[in-house]
Amino acid sequence: MLDFDGVLAHYSRPARLAHLARVAGCTPARVSEILFDSGLERAYDSGTLDTADYLQRLGAGIGITIDADAWIAARVAGAQADPVAMELVASIASTVQVGVLTNNGALMLDAIPRIVAPLFPMLEGRVLCSGVLRVRKPDRAIFEQALAHFDVRAQDTLFVDDLFVNVQGARAAGLHADTVVDARSMRTVFRRYGLLPGSPAPPV
């Protein structure tokens, strides 16, 4: 299981805010205030707000109607896929199940295929968002839901994330887990767990 932002793609909050600010004709600081300072984004990522309410509150705050397409366009503008990381993931997908577990709202289910298009359709139906599951990493419950979705056992699953607190949460749920911050560290972790050709036997 892979985190998304910071693992498969580089996320730039400033670029995302700048895109929305241009659309709304306001400042990036105003967008940040409505989206992040108010707790709106976290509520959506946590599943306590549905998409319609979230978009309505965002639009009302920045003074323009924001639909799903506009939101996705801004999210794509704030993300840059890591081509080497994608190649590494594609290289192991023929021998192991691969899925994504991300702290994001439901709209990311439509944004992710646009950001890391080469990994689709391989990842179709294999992206889980905290906003849909209604619980965020590092809560143990999100990992338990993910394991059930993918029908795998914790002891047979490797989780990678750029935030160590989420790695700790996965380990507490019984998964193998490690920190990955770029393609180089991803390769190192994949080799450590025997996922790449020529790798040593994985740890037990």
Notable traits:
mainly alpha; 6 strands; 11 helices; 2 domains; 204 residues; DNA polymerase, domain 1; Rossmann fold
The CATH superfamily of the largest domain turns out to be HAD superfamily/HAD-like
**Given the C-alpha coordinates, what overall shape results?**
globular
CATH topology of the largest domain: Rossmann fold
Number of helices: 11
Number of domains: 2
| Residues in helix, % | 40-55%
Largest sheet: 2 strands, antiparallel
Fraction of residues in β-strands = 5-15%
pLDDT < 50 stretches? none
**SSE arrangement, N to C:** EHHHHHEHEHEHHEHEH
InterPro entries: HAD-like_sf, HAD-SF_hydro_IA, HAD_sf, PGP-like_dom2
Protein name: Hydrolase
GO molecular function: hydrolase activity
Keywords: Hydrolase
Describe the SSE topology:
Layout: E1 9-11, H1 13-24, H2 28-37, H3 40-46, H4 51-62, H5 68-77, E2 79-81, H6 83-92, E3 100-102, H7 108-115, E4 127-129, H8 130-133, H9 140-150, E5 158-161, H10 164-172, E6 176-179, H11 183-192
Parallel strand pairs: 3-4, 5-6
Antiparallel strand pairs: 1-2
GO molecular function: hydrolase activity
InterPro entries: HAD-like_sf, HAD-SF_hydro_IA, HAD_sf, PGP-like_dom2
Pfam families: Hydrolase
